[in-house]
Design brief:
This protein is an alpha/beta fold. The chain has two domains: about 1-80, no CATH class; about 170-525, Rossmann fold (3-Layer(aba) Sandwich), CATH 3.40.50.200. The chain has helices spanning about 35-50, 105-110, 145-155, 200-205, 280-290, 320-335, 350-360, 455-475, 480-490, 515-525; strands at about 1-5, 10-15, 20-25, 25-30, 75-80, 85-90, 90-95, 115-120, 130-135, 160-165, 165-170, 170, 215-220, 250, 305-310, 320, 340, 345, 370-375, 390-395, 410-415, 425-430, 450-455. Strands 14-15-13-17-19-20-21 form a seven-stranded parallel β-sheet, sandwiched between helices. A six-stranded antiparallel β-sheet has the order 1-2-5-6-11-16. It has a four-stranded antiparallel β-sheet with strand order 8-9-7-10, sandwiched between helices. It starts with a strand and ends with a helix.
Length: about 525
């Protein structure tokens, strides 16, 4: 089975057998354990309301409505052949038609496969087309039939793209652990094995600027601790003037019409609380890399004068709707200058379209700058990092070497210092007691638990580059995103070997970022 990307390439899927079962009288969607069975069950309940009463509560005993039988629709699960990640589809698809498409034409397109409009995406500007979530009321035409409908629609002249409205498994870039402090900003070879000066040259960059508070970096992740003493001063307030409820960012896992949608804080925690699995502890560390303010000797970000926009889209490891991930990117692009993403997933046409939309939505047409981690699988560059619309960021070490876990490929833009050598990266941690990478251990970042010294991977490299971009835009706000890429690549320091005649390496991209050189060059061009 397959569906088509927006460039009309096949994305291959294998169907995973699922069925409705009962547990203590409660219906749930069952999948084989090797395919994230708990995530499948949770997604079916929280996103498809299978096993819920009308009011949204979990059923306690005998369900009030019949359990779906063969003639009724149940979600269909797939395994993405390229990534191995799980995807689910129930009754919906996403379709975008060209500007000027009439209601009659749209009705004809949808009627061909029996679909009805559920909602229109108001975040997509009309000049980019009309985008809808459409639903299939016929239980005999769900599952694989939704792929067939989407694949047929993309052959029509009026259709820009169409895709099943997947709920997908995304991965926050996992953290290869090592150790301590902020050598990535100024490396004095304090620890044996480090190379003196193998850092981003922050001190010289700060002679130009420590960041303009009008420049905002959106951290799209599992939430940001907006109450953290080392972050709260730099949280962007009231990012969307048209929505008074938007006080400090949003949670796109939660529907727009629910109050908790406007709370982007970490929310999901599962013992053991210092592990990535089951815990919202990743985004706070990323935010600190960008713009922590250095309170009481704590971590300082590369752009401590800039602002952070928290955009929550993950609840720990729960499957997330591609539609919501895409809208989180659109929101971030509309209200921030730079978008930092330290995660990856399977290909999504809607997410890909959001990357394209951000060029028009962001910075008054100059385009929000999209910075994505290339991934930590020692493999090829992941999606969305491999999109031409974003900058794929790999990781280097404090020994001026390529981090062995970092993904690589022709899409690699640059690398940034991270873990994998002698030390890891020191940054902010969730401030809730006994939650986070560091529950309060002096050897792991401090007894107060406000910081961790075990962060790393491309998860740390990407926000470091995003912060450098924020410094560049602080001195040269008129640079468009293509110019930003050119400046970063042309000022990067060549470390390691294997560069082509054009100066590119699949491992290092165009080299290790140099904040001072990048800001100086941006100022010249600005």
């Amino acid at each position: 089975m397959h569906f088509y990307s927006i460039s009309k390439e096949k994305v291959e899927l294998d169907e995973i057998p699922t069925e409705i079962r009962l547990q203590n009288g409660v219906p749930f969607v069952h999948a084989p354990m090797e395919f994230s069975a708990a995530s499948v069950t949770g997604a079916a309940r929280s996103l498809f309301a299978i096993g819920l009463e009308t009011g949204g509560r979990a059923l306690a005993e005998t369900p009030r409505r019949p359990i779906p039988r063969k003639k009724e629709a149940i979600p269909t699960c797939f395994k993405d052949r390229k990534t191995g990640l799980v995807r689910m589809v129930y009754k919906e698809a996403v379709i975008r038609v060209r500007p000027g498409t009439s209601e009659r034409q749209l009705s004809r397109i949808l009627r061909k496969h029996g679909y009805e409009i559920r909602s229109r995406n108001k975040r997509v500007k009309e000049k980019l087309g009309q985008q809808y979530v459409v639903t299939q009321p016929n239980p005999k035409k769900v599952g694989a039939a939704i792929l067939d409908a989407a694949n047929d629609w993309v052959t029509m002249d009026e259709v820009i793209f169409a895709t099943p409205n997947f709920v997908s498994q995304y991965k926050r870039a996992q953290l290869p652990s090592i150790n301590d402090e902020q050598w990535h900003l100024q490396n004095t070879a304090r620890w044996v094995g480090q190379i003196n000066g193998e850092d981003v040259d922050a001190l010289r960059a700060w002679k130009f600027t420590t960041g303009d508070p009008r420049v905002t970096v959106a951290v799209v992740d599992d939430g940001v601790d907006v109450d953290h003493p080392n972050l709260k001063r730099n949280i962007r307030r009231s990012p969307d003037p048209a929505e008074p409820k938007d006080v400090c960012g949003r949670d796109f896992y939660i529907p727009d019409d629910q109050a908790d949608h406007f709370n982007p804080r970490p929310k999901d925690f599962t013992y053991p609380y210092d592990q990535m699995g089951g815990n919202d502890i990743h985004g706070t560390a990323c935010a600190g890399i960008v713009a922590a303010v250095g309170v009481n000797g704590g971590a300082v970000g590369i752009a401590p004068g800039c602002k952070i926009l928290p955009v929550k889209v993950w609840h720990a490891d729960k499957l997330a709707a591609d539609e919501r991930v895409a809208d989180a990117i659109r929101y971030a692009a509309l209200h921030a200058d730079v978008v930092s993403c330290s995660w990856f997933g399977s290909y999504s046409g809607d997410v890909e379209m959001a990357l394209h939309d951000s060029r028009d939505l962001g910075r008054g047409g100059k385009g929000a700058v999209l910075v994505f981690a290339s991934g930590n699988a020692a493999s090829t560059v992941s999606f969305p990092a491999r999109s031409a619309e974003v900058m794929a960021i790999g990781a280097s070490t404090d020994k001026a070497a390529f981090a062995p876990y970092s993904n690589q490929g022709p899409e690699q833009c640059v690398v940034a210092p991270s873990s994998g050598g002698v030390r890891s990266v020191f940054t902010t941690d969730v401030s809730i007691t006994n939650r986070g990478f560091n529950p309060g251990d002096a050897t792991r970042g401090g007894t107060d638990g406000l910081h961790t010294n075990t962060f790393g991977g491309t998860s740390s490299a990407a926000p470091l580059v995003a912060g450098v971009v924020a410094l560049m835009l602080s001195v040269a706000p008129d640079l468009d995103r293509d110019a930003v890429r050119d400046v970063l690549q042309s000022t990067a320091k060549k470390i390691g070997t294997g560069y082509s005649a054009k100066g590119h390496s699949n491992k290092f991209g165009y080299g290790r970022i140099n904040a001072a050189a990048a800001v100086a060059e941006a100022k010249k061009r600005g």
